[in-house]
Amino acid sequence: MAGPMDEAAVKQHLSKVPLFSGLSPKLLHTLAATARDKSYSAGDVIVRQGDKSFGLYIVVEGKVDVEKAGKTVATLGPGQFFGEMALLDEEPRTATVKAAARSRCVVVFSWEFWSSVGKDPEALRSLLKESVRRLRGSAPAPED
Ligand code: CMP
Q: Which residues line ligand 1 (CB under 6 A)?
């Protein structure tokens, strides 16, 4: 895997992420200038259930497994994101996310998120929509 991405490469990746498709060039620029890319080997823990950390991760290469109590509940690939739950409520991480292969993520830190994506209602809406979809997916079936 190549070395760290420069700002232009980060911007190029972020511009292809559906979540950010409505961001103005200015907000996308702010986001890219402050985001960091991180590389992982297969098996690396990226975020751990119960930890307090508030970055939003966008997968740009490879794939990651989302695990709850040791069970894989989802696998995410390029263009998908994770970490939005702790970002939104500042509570501990709800799941452990591990690299399922050599992977690369762009990390948007919470304070940078709120000054860029947080200003775009459409981006916030799609983030919340995906978050709710994940919660619905893991909710117990209603009792009859
Ligand atoms: P967060 O709780 O901040 O950190 C762990 C992340 O795993 C969580 O945010 C979501 O992004 C992700 N996650 C949790 N549950 C699911 C799920 N059922 N499907 C997909 N992703 C999930």
A: 47, 66, 73-74, 82-86, 93-95, 97, 134, 137-138
